[in-house]
Amino acid sequence: MSWLTSEAKLLATPAPLLEGLCERLSSMGVPLARVSIVHFTLHPLLHGRSFRWRPGQRGTTEVHPHGLQHLPPFSRSPFKALQEGLSIIDRRLESPLADDDYPMFAELRAEGLTEYLALPVCFSDGQRHAVSWATSAPGGFTDAHRAMLQDLHPLLELVLEIMARRDMTGVLLDTYLGRDTGRRILQGQIRRGDGETTSAVICLSDLRSFTALSDALPRDALLELLNAYFETMVTAFHANGAEVLKFMGDAVLAIYRIDASAPVEARCQAAARTIHEAVAACARDNTRRLREGLTPYEFGASLHVGDVMYGNIGASDRLDFTVIGPAVNLASRIAGLCAGLNVPVLLSESFVSHYRGGVKDLGHHPVKGVSQPVHIYTLEAQSTARTFA
User: Fold this and answer.
1) Extended strands (E) in the chain
2) Residue 251: which domain range?
3) Are residues 220 and 338 in the same domain?
């Protein structure tokens, strides 16, 4: 079908593809009652997604977390068999069901479906996904309808692979580089030196006593603790509009970009709210961790406002899209004072000059690399009470 090689390949996800294809096939007289696409994806949280269409209804999308593939009903489904190498499943559901039928056939038969046809969707790298077609027409599909579905299958495979590759690229860039960074790279900012100078609220957070924890904890326990801490921080950052740029050992670097739509005062409020939420989440997590016999954790963070160079740096064949500049260095130095001052967050004078909430003055403190002592503040005690136990 020409639609599959023109408009369809421009669609963002399989959901509108499935809806458009099924509507066109139905208008051509193919008696479709239920159609599904199962796509197994490279994603840190998901094993795959399934897309389902029924006549007269909007398509539905279901996500499948990792581990679900090992459990019924998926482990005993036609999709699992197709993924593992079966070339076709064609079952007339009007005839009595056999003991070795897939359990879902009983459900389909109870819905009044008469034939189930499923084919593997094979990508060029060997990955196998699946599509299924079902009808409630008496006697099932005709030979002509069955032939039509199989004839269009290679085109459907091609379009689904284009969509999957596009989706995978975006997911991996977002996951490993950050949401805004991934978007910029996909838009073509890939040359060394590409970038811009921008104003931002800079937040650098690191785990307290990481060296001691590294020496004391077994590898798996240390990784579990690091992931718990990163989950706490990144959840709070993303909830308040920050761009998480990178993890550096036990540290997280994030920025809140300042522009006409996001003035500095609003960004400072968002950054302070991030710390409030992270402290509260850390306290809740530590309560659970202590109850379960796990090691609790603490963090220290800094908030600073300044100009940063945001772009590509590195070697010609190994680049990093990040922020650099004196403001980033100062934020890092200030964060290092948290343990000595026994507070979870420290604020620079430039941050306080734009922040409209309550702060506590902690005086001037020497900072490595800065010739004069730096004026340091923290958020009001009632807002960031130490709840680490």
Assistant:
1) 34-40, 46-53, 60-65, 89-92, 115-122, 128-135, 195-207, 243-248, 251-257, 299-315, 318-324, 345-348, 359-365, 374-379
2) 191-379
3) yes
Is residue 387 one of the residues assigned to a domain?
A: no
Whether residues 292 and 246 share a domain: the answer is: yes
Model's pTM, two decimal places? 0.72
Print pLDDT tens along the chain (389 aa).
688 878 887 888 888 999 999 999 999 999 999 999 988 877 776 778 889 999 988 778 887 777 766 667 677 888 888 988 999 999 999 988 888 889 999 999 999 999 999 999 999 988 899 999 999 999 999 999 999 999 999 999 999 999 888 887 877 777 777 677 777 776 666 677 677 888 999 999 999 989 899 999 999 999 999 999 999 999 999 999 999 998 988 999 999 999 999 999 999 999 999 999 999 999 999 999 999 999 999 999 999 999 999 888 888 777 777 888 999 999 999 999 998 999 999 999 999 999 999 999 999 999 888 888 999 999 986 445 444 33
What is the rounded distance in angstroms from the CA atom of residue 376 to the CA atom of residue 301?
Answer: 13
Rounded Cα distance between 60 and 53, Å, is 7
Q: Are residues 227 and 129 in the same domain?
A: no
